[in-house]
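Exercise: predict the fold of this chain.
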Amino acid sequence: MARKLDVHRAIIAPRSADAGEMLDLVRTLKAVGVRVSVLPRLLEVVGSSVEFDDLHGVTVMGVRRFELTRSSACVKRSFDILAASLGLLAISPIMLICAIAIKLDSRGPIFFRQLRVGRHGERFHMLKFRTMVPDAEALKDGLRHRNEAQEGLFKIADDPRVTRVGKLLRKSALDELPQLFNIIRGEMSLVGPRPLVLDEDRRIEGWHRRRLELMPGMTGHWQILGPARVPLREMVAIDYLYVANWSLWNDLKILLRTVPHVIGRRGL
């Protein structure tokens, strides 16, 4: 089959109990001239945060410390403060217009404060522009049969609790802008794991909780993939790998990928 399809490389993602089968497969592929790459299951836990050590002539794989160094944490925080401060200055007229529109459209506060779980499990109130009627939480139980998300998340495409202005704010992602204040206050980061509500966080167990080593982000891989389409179990695994592989360059790439995602959601 490899010769018929002109295969140049085979990538093997082994299961936990097929070592003998995998070795036979590797030998067979090499015998017919196919290059072989193996994806270690270790990457599911440590990502690419590994290094190779020489132990008395034997090459072994070493696992780096699972957390940001002081210098990396300082760089990330400095970048967050600078970018969030400049962002608030640039978009303050837009935020003022949004606030006025919310007050004219419906009764209730301008901001929506929701308790979320942050770094090291500390709780904080995440800010958004209010996009729903004031008693939205009280109406939630009556709408659970329409929930489109998976595994503990709650999301409805045409949520009847959303106001007219709220629909525009959500479609344009302008409702997320107040989270820049959370970043300035040191409760969130521009890029990081998804900030979960208390009910969602209680479902996270074991090594998945290491995702809380970093502050939750205003955006991240979860934002690009779409939280309603990714099961909670897979989302927290993605968050864990983000923490394990953090770099400022990776944050910049996620921010750049977020822009077309938001524009595409607006249908522009």
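Check your answer against the key: The longest helix spans residues 70-105.
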